[in-house]
Design a protein that fits this description.
- Helices cover 32% and strands 16% of the residues.
- The protein has 15 helices and 18 strands.
- The strands form three sheets. Strands 10, 11, 12, 13, 14, 15, 16, 17 and 18 form a nine-stranded mixed beta sheet that branches.
- Helix 9 links the parallel strand 14 and strand 15.
- Helix 2 runs parallel beside helix 3.
- The two termini are 43 Å apart.
- The structure holds acetamide.
């Protein structure tokens, strides 16, 4: 209990003083300088982040886009293949100014970027791809549309960084020559965004989705309910958003997603091969719901709304049937508009729920999740209740030892790794960071890269026991897209690489050089990233 409470007491001071001074919590370190072109020789297939499984550069095989280049799919290509082709055209047209028509036809010898579904090396699996850049054209092969999409993200990095600009740029649009064969180490490459402490509107979430997909993140976990806010419309319990959604940390206006808006976010993410995992935190972190409905409190009295940053003071009424009727409605309504397999059941820091009540609570809730066709993902504390093996405990602690998590892994639960001292994007980079917390320590760019999911929890050391990696961004100190970008970038790229790339590629010196080359790219995209002194930025 003490650890996170001590962090929040520190935090309370930081946030209050920033706000008292009337200072916008805006990061200022990203350079506004225009992206400098770097020679193509400095931008090879081996520079891609996350590092590919195999990459062979061939400087004699550069391909150059021209006004005649076409984006080609096979004749009769599936709609999801065409969607990837159109997505690629949408990326390349604004900055090149070229028409880049998407054509479904055999290759009649056009200068083409060809997207071919099937015929990829079997090792590419369901998310990997093969990318071949030759003088005559680019061929991207994958066994699935998802693999094509991930290959497009690599292809993007083989072009000059100005390709990311939203207006026409004048440069030679050279694609670095060579060959890549690539596939992920872990199936779950996740980011978590806390939209409860501060609300982020659908456009802000979609901007983050675009940024995440660029680095092959395939899961966005939305933390939709906490003490400070309830952020998703539940039609059968309208006060959740009317009252519980009406504020946020610091007392701002808060907000929420209607079910239609949430559905749009899910679709936007799906078009970028990202699955949304909705989380409703429970049985603690529940003040916003309990302020909305007195019957969710054992006292029968609704507490006031809460805009501070303490944790551990709230709990649903475990002994009341109304609690489970309520959660059945919530899980039913959200599951109905969530195509993904997982529903997030929270479970962290339930300091006001006894261990016995915690177990009783989940003995009611986990079957509800199953009833609505979902598997549970929860913070690692849920490992204590012996959830079904379909459940994914998410390790967020820093100690590296946890007998309940080890026992869950031994039973067959896959563990998602988000160690706070490595993978929490909300921790400060250094003592002077204008945003972020520091209860888990300072997390510089090198710290965020220098870890391995298979040595994070002693006794959970096989890749087969690990679902993947999550980079978590809590929002006590952030309220704008610039703020998100400052804390997430560039640390997110490290987590993306740890989740995707073979362990054998792990090397800070090499990574930091590749990361340096992402600087002009992020700048061209308008990403307000932290220019860490650990990186020799271009
Ligand atoms: C957490 O950081 N309380 C999951």
């Amino acid at each position: 209990m003490t650890k996170r409470l001590s962090r929040t007491s520190l935090l309370g001071t930081a946030v209050v003083s920033l706000m008292a001074l009337g200072l916008p919590a805006v990061a200022t370190s990203a350079s506004a300088a225009p992206a400098a072109a770097h020679p193509v020789s400095e931008r090879t297939v081996a520079d891609v982040i996350p590092a590919p499984v195999q990459a062979k550069a061939n400087p004699k095989a550069d391909f150059t886009l021209s006004p005649l280049t076409v984006i080609r799919t096979d004749f009769g290509a599936s709609p999801d293949t065409k969607q990837v082709a159109n997505y690629l055209a949408g990326l390349l047209r604004p900055s090149t100014g070229y028409p880049l028509p998407v054509i479904a036809a055999p290759n009649f010898g056009w200068p083409a970027i060809s997207l071919v579904l099937g015929h990829a090396d079997p090792s590419a699996g369901t998310e990997g791809y093969q990318l071949d850049v030759a003088k005559s054209g680019v061929t991207l092969r994958a066994n699935t549309a998802t693999g094509l999409f991930e290959g497009v993200q690599s292809l993007r990095q083989l072009l000059p960084s100005q390709v990311e600009a939203k207006t026409v740029q004048h440069t030679k649009w050279t694609v670095s020559g060579g060959a890549i064969l690539d596939y992920p180490r872990f199936g779950t490459r996740s980011a978590m965004l806390d939209v409860a402490r501060h609300f982020f509107n659908p456009t802000q979430v979609e901007t983050y989705i675009d940024q995440l997909s660029q680095y092959k993140i395939n899961t966005l976990h939305l933390h939709l309910a906490d003490d400070q806010g309830w952020r998703i419309e539940i039609k059968s319990w309208p006060n959740l958003t009317k009252i519980g959604g009406s504020t946020e940390v610091g007392g701002g206006a808060g907000g929420f997603y209607t079910q239609a808006q949430y559905t749009d976010i899910v679709k936007y993410a799906a078009a970028r091969h990202i699955t949304i995992v909705p989380e409703i935190d429970m049985p603690g972190h529940t003040n916003a719901a309990q302020a909305s409905y007195p019957e969710l409190n054992c006292t029968g009295i609704a507490p006031p709304l809460y805009t501070g940053t303490d944790v551990g003071f709230s709990s649903y009424c475990v002994s009341s049937p109304t609690t489970y009727k309520f959660l059945d409605d919530v899980i039913r309504e959200i599951s109905a508009i969530t195509p993904g397999k997982y529903f997030g059941v929270g479970g962290d820091e339930a300091h006001s729920t006894s261990a016995a009540d915690y177990a009783t609570f989940y003995s009611h809730v986990l079957p509800i999740v199953a009833k609505y066709g979902k598997a549970a993902v929860g913070w690692h504390e849920i490992a204590t209740v012996t959830p079904p093996v379909s459940a994914v405990p998410e390790y967020w602690d820093t100690s590296g030892t946890n007998a309940d998590v080890v026992a869950a892994a031994a039973r067959g639960n896959k563990i998602l790794m988000a160690p706070a001292n490595k993978a929490y994007l909300d921790q400060k980079y250094n003592v002077d960071s204008p945003l972020g917390l520091d209860w888990a320590g300072l997390v510089e760019v090198k710290d965020a890269y220098d870890w391995d999911p298979a040595t994070t929890v002693k006794g959970v050391d096989k890749d087969s026991e690990i679902a993947g990696v999550e980079a978590a961004l809590w929002s006590e100190t952030i309220s704008t897209s610039d703020n998100i970008e400052y804390l997430a970038f560039p640390r997110l790229l490290g987590d993306a690489e740890i989740a995707w790339s073979p362990k054998s590629t792990h090397n800070w010196d090499n990574y930091s050089q590749r990361l340096a080359k992402q600087g002009p790219r992020m700048t061209a995209e308008g990403i307000d990233f932290y220019r860490s002194p650990q990186v020799n930025w271009q």
